[in-house]
Amino acid sequence: MPLRTEPITINIGPQHPSTHGVFRLRATFDGEVILDVEPVFGYLHRGSEKLAEERTYTQVITLTDRLDYVSSMINNQAYVLACEKLAGVEAPERGMYLRVIAAELQRIASHLVATGFLINDLGAFATPLMYCFREREKILDLFEMLCGARITVTYMRVGGVFQDAPEDFWPALKTFVKEMPIYLDEYEQLLSENEVLLIRTKGVAILSTETAINGSVSGPVLRSTGYPWDLRKADPYELYDRFDFEIPVGERGDNYDRYKVRISEMRQSIRILEQCMQQIEPGLVKTDVPLLLRPPVGEAYAHVESPKGELGFYVVSDGGVSPYRLKIRAPSFINLTILRELVIGLKLADMIVAFGSIDVNMGEVDR
Amino acid sequence: MTRLLTGEELAGHVRNAVPEAVEVWNDRDVVIRPGDVVDVCSYLKETPGLEFNYLNAISAVDYVEYFEVVYHLTSMIHNHSATLKTRVYGREEASVPSVVNIWHGADLQEREVWDLMGIQFTGHHNLKRVLLWDEFPGHPLRKDFLEEIR
Complex ipTM above 0.85? Predict the structure, then answer.
């Protein structure tokens, strides 16, 4: 005789190690199988968009650091690009190269965090994560050389970067670029063929390209479905049209492809870094833009390919010293649109992995 | 490089969908009547040659006199983009038809606009606050928010 079961609703989070910050899910289960989920956001909401309306254009850069705090450089970049579009200024070439170098280093750091925590969610507690953090530490050291800060960098400015890289930055970057592929091989050796990882990720939580595009999904999650859409290629900003690199794509859009795409993207970032080091020439790093910037009345939307997806800033100016309105198109937030479709029918343990493989950052989701 | 459709081009396409829809246009964007949002958006998504299959962002701006809802659209097939706007007058009952049935990606973004700016999206299946809690007074991104709660 079959047992009679009843659906049960459970709160997962906001305090839970696998929720990557303060994320809460109200999930309804039938036994171990998920019937419905409803994400509950807002535990980290600081009102960044409203705060920006009270600060000058330069001060807002510090707010962008605190959105996705594992990819501050790229948040800086997206914001200053929007302001530059609005004010009609352009950074000098060396400044742009430094920005690209910082952004690609940050992409590697963010993907390392994503990979490490994904493995953490799979139950390999802390050890693989520490492997990933070992390399991330080196990137943070490089950032410290660039601007003195490690996480909340505020390195970029409207019209360039805050200062030129010091002399000892370049040998350190060279060593990093030389060593990183070896470390990536090491991860792949440990993880990519690992039986536990393969069983738990291959064919689990499959996302189709149509669902992804219709759900405004971007970044590695979209590319893992096999669709090569990368803003660095599709809509090149800064100097990305000068570099030779590929867009890694997945085959099926499952957990494994999302993991694999990130590993491959780190290799491409290293290629870009190598080309930057060859091409960069001495010169100015910042054009003369007043610190108290007053862009003309108007609006601009600029987007960049952040480690999570399309990060966009929509800035409206009324001619004053602070933005009239600043809208942040946060990829982590919008990528969660498809979470419900993705996890219904999965088991609880697989849902945690699927959520980890989307790689969201709560600082950016809640803003 | 993604090509941004000029306002003139976009206005032409919008007129093909709904002849009366365009209110004003400039070199970058087109403002349409709020009532025509759904018809215009489905036309832009379905018509061969346009195929705006990707909704980048929905933003709302409070210009005090009216609210402006801004749709940034991209066609991943043709690699072009467009900026579509609509203006809503009246602060109490501001509402715009929802595009969630055209682009599922509008789901959380429309909820966010409702939460922070207080513009209702009619036809949205689950329009409730997303970042703030249900009892929160007012909509913080409105320019008169601070006066309202004092």
Answer: yes
